[in-house]
Each structure stands twice: as structure tokens, then as C-alpha cells.
Fold:
Amino acid sequence: MKRKKVIFSIIALGLMAGTALLLAAVPQKLGPPGVKASPVAGSARWQIDLPETVLGLTSTNLEMDPKSLEMLPADTSFAERAYFKPGIAPIIASVVLMGTDRTSIHKAQYCLQGQGMHLEQMTRETIPMKQPQPYDLPVIKIVGQESREINGKTKAISCVYVYWYVTDGQLSNDQSGFGRMWSMARQLALTGVLQRWAYVRFYMFCEPGQEDAAFAEIKAAIAAAVPQFQLTPKPSSVTMPAQR
Structure:
């Protein structure tokens, strides 16, 4: 088992190094994104419009906090909205779209753990979608828990966090990121075009024991919202399989 892990690590490191060399050596032309986005005059960032209305819920735009903004490459584009339903915590949706620097797309678990969240479960799931035609959206579901000070008392609170990756013509719930890197390297070597991946997430907090109900709320929001801003898969096209 240890030998297999070592071999896998060596292959992974070689793939990352090879991709980095390609990115440095091959002239890059950014490919089209898999989400609705448009250039912003005078800025390296693009405008991403998440839907204002999902399932009749009210929503508000959220600004990225300064610390997170400082960590992102200057040509990274992003958008975030909170959707409100009476009686439950808001559902937060966001998109991070890479530019020429692929480091803006990373593993969600690193950020969550860095924020002090204990990850209890991480699984690969699919969410049935009806638009633009029936298909299964491949996602990663994380269930985590953190402690908060509420009214002077420490209280445990759960988080259900669902995310996936999308670019023009491809969807992925690849946890390792190696599949996306291989796809980028191959596309770049063959065409000189750098795939423009986006990281999409929906999450909400809930009381411990209510994780299944929270996941059901998130799935309903995803089914309603995603067709309004995601371009992959295209109407009447064959859905690309999740990368393994």
C-alpha cells in the first residue's frame, strides 16, 4: 500500500511539474469559460453574474473579504451571493474563475481546514439536473463542523459544502486536481489554448443532525440556479463525464 502511494505521489508530482513547464514555455491563449462572464473595461477581472432570484428566494451580493482577495492572482474573477429562506440559514453560492494563473483554483478542504473547520465527511455525489437537458451534475460534498461563541457559550455548528469544477465542455468532481491538470496540459500542448476552469460552490450552516435537510436545500438551489449561469453542458449536447 505504501509503495502504491509513493508511486502515485511521484506520478502526481511529475504531472504537476510537467504542467508547470508547459504553462511557462507554451504561448497561452485563454479558452472560453464554462460560466457566463464578460470582460470588465480597464480590469483584468471579468464580471460574473449569479442569478438574483432562485426558487423565489431573496438574495444579496456579497463582497470578497480583503484577505482572500489578496491571496488571489490579479486576473482571477469571482462572484458571490447569499440566498435567504425563512427559518433556515442562508445558502451561499460563489464562482471563482481562473485567468492565466491556475493557482486560483485549489482544493476546498485546504481553505475549510485553514478556517478551523473539522472535516467529518467528503464524498463524490451527483445532482440530477433538468436544464439545459437532463444530466447528472458531478459534485463533491463536504460535511464539516466548527465551534462558535454564541451568547458567551461555545456551540458546535455544522456546514454542508458542495462544490465542483467547470470549463468549456467539461465538468469535474475530481478531488485531487490531477485530472484537471492533465486536461489543461494536454489541451495546451495540442492547441496552445489554456482551459479556463471555474470553481463553483454552494454551502450553508445548520444545526448538528440537520445535515441531510441542509443538503436537500442546497440540491434544490443548485438545480434552479446553475442553468442560469453555467454554460456547460450546452443545450442538446452530450454531457462530458466527470473526470476520474
Notes: The helical segments are 2-25, 66-71, 108-114, 178-191, 211-229. The chain is about 30% helix and 35% strand.
